[in-house]
Amino acid sequence: MALLLASVLAITGCSGENEGAAPAGKADSKSNGSTASAPAAKIVADPAVDAKDVPVLQPVKISVSDGKLTEVVVNDPEGKPVAGDTTADKLSWANSQRLDYGKTYTYAAKAMGADNKPAELKGSFSTVKPAKTIRATVNPADGQTVGVGMPISVNFPDDAPKDRAAAEKALKIETTPQVEGSWAWVSANKADWRPKEYWPAGTKVKVSASLYGVNYGNGYGRADVTSEFSIGRKQVLKVNTPDHSLKVYRNGALTATYPSSNGKDSNPDLNTPNGTLIVMSKEPVGDFSNPAYGYTNVKKKWAMRISNHGEYLHENEENAANIGKANTSHGCVNLFEKDAKALFDTTLIGDPVEVTGSKVAMPTTSEVNDWLFSWEKWTGMSALK
Description:
This protein has helices spanning about 1-15, 30, 165-170, 335-345, 375-380; strands spanning about 40-45, 50-55, 60-65, 65-75, 85, 90-95, 105-115, 120-125, 135, 135-140, 145, 150-155, 170-175, 180-185, 190-195, 205-210, 220, 225-230, 235-240, 245-250, 255-260, 275-280, 280-285, 300-305, 310-315, 335, 350-355.
């Protein structure tokens, strides 16, 4: 019995000192050791503090890492807040209101870091102050209804943009229904958009020229310009000069034929040149005085300009003997007064005028010249080709 009890006590003593067991009063270093401290919030602003000549189109962005934004205020020089929004995750803020030229803006941002401590950033930046701003206009204007040959023109009347690509990138066309078309620079000061084919009748068009703040290389865009207009019914005027007549087609069907006297066949300088033109303007009474040809104080009714080369559609009762019989004008399409009035009343600015049969072609230097170019040539005149 004594020997058995001694053996049990010996075994029990060995198990109490089992290898790997922690001594009494000591903690397990794996389960209760210290952890790294949480990081502080870091706020970053773009533009950076004290930035100069910031482009007005550059977004203002305040962002934070290792924390959440709690407040962002950006003020203009008058102390008015610049509109903006914080993202749902509270990691960044961006302006929704554009900046002005030559202004100093201040910002103050606050955040709470992962370390549960507040952080703050304050600063200011200044926007670019252009030496020159360049204005733009758009045609057709709001609310107009124009013919199916009408191009869209964005004109820079005071100065031509040096960087045409930058200007063209800011131009946007929206149409209902969708229409294929392209921009082309028809002069140093003007970009036109025309469809590949005539506009579909009834098309709704919206032009957005977001030019404010665009750097042209020789100045900055002064303001955005927009326009919304409509395309009317499809009417095309056709003049085959040997026929001594002008034909009116509405939606593809011949609706009227008017006798005419066109430019002199014997003198190419006085032909009515071949080409697809458009009605550019309408005047109840036009002044056709031209001292070079001995015309002084010559007024004609129901005048419609079709080029800046000098051609019009108009009445000319003084040439009544030749209307419908011979081509004797100096390039214009002469009509009887009643026919000229009827045509004037049913024609829209932008209606195409297709001239064929002459000895010469309309020079592409004449405005409006958009339809004188092939589609391949037209698209090649884009600055973004």
